[in-house]
Amino acid sequence: MRRAQFILLCGCMLLMAGLSLMSNMPIAAQDKPTTTPPAPITDPVGMPPQFLANYYESWVTSPHANKEAEAFVHWDAEQKIATTCATCHSTSGYQDFLGADGSAVGTVELEAPVGGVINCDACHSPAAVSLQKVVFPSGAEVGNMGDSTRCIVCHSGRASTVQVDAALEKAGLLDDPNKVSADLRFVNIHYYAAAASLYGTEAKGGYEYEGKSYQMRFMHVEGYNTCASCHNSHTLEVKVEECSTCHEDVKTVEDLRNIRMQGSLSDYDGDGNIVEGIAAEIEGMQAELMKAMQLYAANVAKSPIVYSETAYPYFFVDTNSNGKLDDGEAIAENSYKSFTANLERAAYNYQMSIKDPGGFAHNAAYHLELLYDSIESLNAELGSSAMDLGDLVRNDPGHFDTTSEAFRHWDAEGEVPGTCAKCHTDGGLATFLKNNTNIAVEPSNSLACTTCHSQIPDFTLREVAEVTFPSGAKVSFGEDAAANLCLNCHQGRESTVSVNKAIASAGVGDDEISDKLSFRNVHYFAAGASMFGTEVKGAYEYEGKDYNGRFMHDDDAQTCTDCHDVHALTIDFESCLDCHDADTPEDIREKDTPDYDGDGDTDEGVAGEIQTMKDALLTQLQAYALKTTGSAIAYSSTAYPYWFIDTNGNGVADPDEMNNDNRFVAWTPNLLRAAYNYQFVSKDPGQFTHNAKYIAQVLYDSIESVGGAKAVADMERPEVETE
């Protein structure tokens, strides 16, 4: 009987859902139901169609239908479900929250009866079908999730950074984060807050520490970015067979835990294992956080702490200080009551990570960031008891570091300009290769598989025959060489050509100040420009001087992909040791390398030669600026526009000097050329191996230009190599 009634009900509700979709009625307009349920669909012999029976069979074995689950029996003693819980623990409460019963939208007015589950009435009412957006506990509003919007209502958690901060403020702990408050209780995010994980910093479901940057919504491959695209919406099971399309070794749900993508090759938990799945990395970080919490609780809060995953309120006093949860400790009377602000924040993040068992798939990076920051925050207060965090890693490698300035710079504006989109958005390179231009787009998390690969899951590399540099030069590592992809973004944005053009437009002599001149910035990591040397003229090359072209290393080490892991970006230093006897890349020095910097040290690596010349260039730049322009100059490698007026003349850019209003403006052509080259060398940290002789030539000429022949009297300019 129950099955037949369910099928009949489903028929009505599905038709109602269809009518609602056709009318496209917004939820705000649904103060009262306006649709009368039609008669159920029947087959030729008057029975409900089989497809509804299939839905029933899928639903009836799901957690949503489990009448014995704690999620539905918790209130049996009271014989009613409180309005604060009814939305997600009863069908009538869910309908009430959405206004499907004619009540106000977004609130629950009536306590719900016990004995029910989440059935088709909840998700297939007109109000549910037309749901367009959901508000998270933080106040963040999200939408455009289609059918999965209905899932977010109950899987967004019940707390966030906002609620934790409010609790800390109420307890008066914001100014003293290590003060114990007996009034502060644990703030619990609640269970299965998968959407809070998925949306990351957009929802702020975790506790986000001030001054830190966090992963936004995790974007999987196209077609698998919502709850319903990865889970069967009735059984709730993960569509494992579809995961196996890209993840070859996945055959079961348990296998999902072993997945580790190429963009996550760091040893986050510091256990030395980068083969284990990302789920194990998160578990390792959770263990490190628990260790930090217990150290902090014992040494700072002066009350040892233990955790229970199943017993409310989860954190308890460790009565025997053995670091383990023993019988009799996980009881309400023994609940932990010595929270400080620091401990509360960390405990909240620990619970959030534990209570989303699928967090490794929903948003692994966000969980790792929260756990790391919690550990770091507690550890800073431990003094002599502090843990060694040297092996822990917070962020993904460069191209996948969702917290880096390279991808977060435009978040406030909500738009990455077309001039930046090629290299700072996941789809920018593909757009450029297809159209030879870019348009403004929304910020993305980082680069993605599809940035460099045109076919997924075959991971076919995009083909690039040659690359045009800012100077107009076209170069290639070889037709369709994989490293040609790298050159599209690691070429810089300026060159000798653009600097000369700017100087010509100013129309002044080499040592004359012009307000028409401003600093020209090559941009970051222009390794390709270093590598190809004078072929692309990425550095400023002085008239009448000759320079080296592309650096041709050993046959097996001539391109970006020969020396760097293409995903982790790490250097294959072990291969360097086949020819070089060195402890680090910076120690490498060919036997016949002259003493370029003139310091008498012929044992230091070539990186040391270049560093001394770079330091000498800055000294000469500062002396020239003061003597020629009457204005002292200072440099910052991190603050735009990098060159500032040195107001106190101490030779360094102080915090109060590094602002746009204090930017250096007294440029002469000679000062601009040399400053451009200083920045060029600074922004390619691997220049000593990419093309050391070219870099030394550029530095030598720049020092001589602003300091005269005396400034380079003890130095040696590398000879220009000819084929």
Summarize the structure.
The protein is built from 27 helices and ten strands. It is mainly alpha-helical and 723 residues long. Strands 1-2 form a two-stranded antiparallel sheet. Strands 3-4 form a two-stranded antiparallel ribbon.
Characterise this structure:
Helix 4 (83-89) crosses helix 5, helix 25 (606-629) runs antiparallel to helix 26 and helix 26 (669-682) packs antiparallel against helix 27 (687-707). It contains 27 helices and 10 strands. The protein has 4 domains: 2-131, no CATH class; 175-190 and 210-221 and 245-303 and 338-399, no CATH class; 408-487, no CATH class; 496-631 and 666-712, no CATH class. It has helices at 2-23, 50-60, 70-73, 83-89, 91-98, 120-124, 126-129, 149-152, 161-170, 194-199, 227-230, 240-243, 278-299, 341-354, 359-379, 405-408, 418-424, 428-435, 449-452, 484-487, 496-506, 527-532, 560-563, 573-576, 606-629, 669-682, 687-707; strands at residues 133-135, 141-143, 305-307, 315-317, 453-455, 460-461, 467-468, 474-475, 633-635, 643-645. It has 723 residues and is mainly α. The chain has a two-stranded antiparallel sheet with strand order 1-2. A two-stranded antiparallel sheet has the order 3-4. Mean pLDDT is 92; it is low at 1-8 and 11-45.
